[in-house]
Amino acid sequence: MITVTFAIDNTQVFSVTARTYCKKISVRENYNAATPPTADLRKYVPSTSATPENIPQGTDAVFEDGGRHFYPGEVVGGINTLAGAITVIQVER
After folding, report:
1. Domain 2-92 = CATH 3.30.70.100
2. CA separation (Å) from 85 to 2, 14, 67, 73, 82?
3. Residue 3: is its pLDDT beyond 70?
4. Domain map of the chain by residue range?
5. For the chain, how far is it from start to end, CA to CA, in angstroms?
6. Residue 62's closest CA among 82, 76, 75, 50?
7. What pTM does this model have?
8. What is the tens place of the pLDDT at every residue in 30-42?
9. Distance of alpha carbon 88 from alpha carbon 93, whole angstroms
10. Residue from 36, 58, 53, 83 nearest 16 by CA
11. DSSP-assigned letters across all residues of 13-80
């Protein structure tokens, strides 16, 4: 399992890129008990990039492709916020 954090906002769609061979990538706001989640996310997948899925705050945006492995460097989708800027954590399994 690998994790990485990065900043996103609502001004553009940020690429979610696999860093290892994995079957599942989860992206969520990087929060804890002292700093609860603050932003809703928009998840874009390559096949439906024009129509994002709204992800409620505190919920993981999950990228999977029917059991197929993602490979390092593969852009699996995109993510941004509905409003504001946050730091997200990407977890690969």
Report:
1. no
2. 23, 12, 32, 25, 9
3. yes
4. 2-92
5. 5
6. 76
7. 0.91
8. 998 888 999 999 9
9. 16
10. 53
11. PEEEE-SSSBSEEEEEE---SSS-----EEEE-GGGTTSPEEE-TT--EEEE-TTPPB-TT-EEEEEE
